[in-house]
């Protein structure tokens, strides 16, 4: 089930912005997680 199917009353434009916003937020979290993994000291 996609976002458009879950909220049929929502117009297409705002649905697209909601999807774009969630993707941007996910990219931000993924970037932070990768940065933390790279910066973490490796156990020797």
Q: In words, what does this structure look like?
A:
With 44 residues, the protein is mainly alpha-helical. The chain has two helices and no strands. The longest helix has 28 residues, at 12-39.
**Contiguous runs where pLDDT drops below 50 for at least 5 residues:** none
How many DSSP E strands? Answer: 0
* Alpha plus pi helix count: 2
Q: How big is the Rg? A: 17 Å
Q: What gap, in angstroms, lies between the N and C termini? A: 46 Å
Q: Please state roughly what percent of the residues sit in beta strands, choosing from under 5%, 5-15%, 15-25%, 25-35%, 35-45% or over 45%.
A: under 5%
Average pLDDT score: 80
Helix content: over 70%
The structural class is: mainly alpha
Strand-and-helix sequence, N→C? HH
- What's the main sheet like? none
- What would you call the shape? rod-shaped
Topology:
Blueprint: H1 3-6, H2 12-39
Write a concise synopsis of the structure shown:
The chain is mainly α.
Keywords:
44 residues; 73% helix
């Amino acid at each position: 089930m996609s976002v458009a199917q879950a909220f049929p009353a929502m117009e297409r434009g705002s649905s697209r912005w909601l999807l774009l916003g969630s993707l941007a937020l996910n990219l931000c979290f993924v970037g932070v997680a990768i940065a933390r993994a790279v910066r973490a000291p490796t156990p020797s």
